[in-house]
Specification:
Radius of gyration: 31 Å
Shape: elongated
Number of domains: 3
Structural class: mainly alpha
Amino acid sequence: MVNRVLIRIKVVQLLYSYLLSRSEFRIEQLPENPSRDKKYGHALYLDFLLLMLELAGYDVTDGKRASVLRGLTINKYIHRGRLTGALSTLPEVREVILKERGTVERFDEAVPEIYAAIAELPAYKNFAKIKQPELKDEVDLWLSIADNIFAKHPALIAAARKSGEFSVAGYTRGVNSLTSTIKDYGNNRSLYNQMRHALVHSLDKAYELYHRLLLLAPAITEAEALRLDEAKHKLLPTDADLHPDLRFVDNRFVAALKENAELEQFKESHKAGWAANDMLIVSLLNKILASDVYRDYMNRRGETTFGEDAEFWREVYKTIILPGDDLADALENESVYWNDDLHVMGTFLLKTLRHFAISKNEGADVRLLPQFKDDEDRRFGPELFELSIKNFDEYRALIDRFLKKDRWDSDRLAFMDVVILVVAIAEIINYANIPVAVSCNEYIEIANAYSSPRSGAFINGILYSVVEYLKAEGKIFKN
């Protein structure tokens, strides 16, 4: 029910926020006009990065010498972890390995001693007890290794002292740069986890909005019932006050909503309702009472059927409540997610009301829509978000490949367009069961709604070229 249209929108929005907010995981560069200490510290920093990778079981010599771990029992807790794996793929690190390899060999003799010392660290022992360590745990472990092994271990310091460029200040700079790089990566992963959680939370909030919209009809009806009751007890009630037409407040569809077990359970478990929005409820009630929809409903001859009662409220939602500014303003004050969700959730609300209108058992046989159609839809958002981040550079390169250089400057592209294209390419490549035309059309619509006026046409052109290329390369086989 939280369908893929809304999921795609939320993935694009949160990826955009993530990419703008993250601190770049980059290798520190040598400053201009460096002092002797700074120059040595930067060279040592690069060696420490390579040593860190060697300790994790990676070849940093491009096959030019045997692993420094040969003959040692491999430490499974630091061997090829996620952090060192990500570090090993950084272009700057690959460049150091392939073109500007440092002097990491100077530490070879110290490796057995420091490799054993790592296993004695309290942080290491705590890490080894975690059944399913998260990336944050890995970051904390490597920060401890940097602080206690790289910064203080006598064998490592003795090996460093063999360099004629050694200085205590330079050595300290090298350690600090290493620590900073590890922390930056940890901060990015923390932000990634926050955004991934925000994606799941926003989808939950969309489903809450669906229920809140359903609860509007009972809340408005109760407000009218209260108004009619107060009119009966005023000082000089009229005959109309004493004998009001109760068709609106006795609407059988609203009665069915109040008795719906699923809606009641959600209301209780999420404390959902409109009790704190009296002004909104009164405003909506007044607009309904002044509408032609209300007048026609109240002027019908004879008793209305359950289906007519449901269709009345469907028309009220469709023409008065959902298009109006009152609801949108109230939702904006309650949740940052709901204004973007209102259109899609309103569509599903109307679909639900239609099910009530054609019910054979006055709504008792109607089930509310589930949050997701199936487990595949439940996984779709988080998976698509992760794939977009994991392959961002690769997909960005595909985009740049097909830019018309005379019309589009890669560095001046609207960043939202880049994000939309990356997510679209991630979906096209990784979801074989989604037709290409469906993916392209959905992201063109997102571009039209959330980016610049020219974005839809631009994204259409780039996606067409990317898809044709991927087909020619045998990377996708769908239409």
